[in-house]
Design brief:
By secondary structure, the protein is mostly beta strands. It has 1 helix and 3 strands. The two termini are 23 Å apart.
Length: 62
């Protein structure tokens, strides 16, 4: 990882695989009880190993 990546709190590295959470909006509006607000987010995965990995994420909760 680069020095910038080491200071990024949205990154985590496990077994030479880097996971970075991507949240386009930094300010979220919290709804009243019983209401819902959709939130967009993403995960960027960088594999730095020759090993084969499979990610099965049927239910992914941030």
């Amino acid at each position: 990882m680069t020095s910038n990546e080491l200071n990024d709190s949205n990154l985590v590295e496990v077994d030479r695989i880097i996971f970075k959470s991507l949240v386009p909006e930094q300010r979220l509006h919290i709804p009243k009880y019983g209401e819902e607000t959709p939130v967009k987010f993403g995960v960027h995965i960088t594999k730095k190993t020759s090993s084969i990995y499979r990610f099965d994420l049927p239910l992914f909760l941030p």
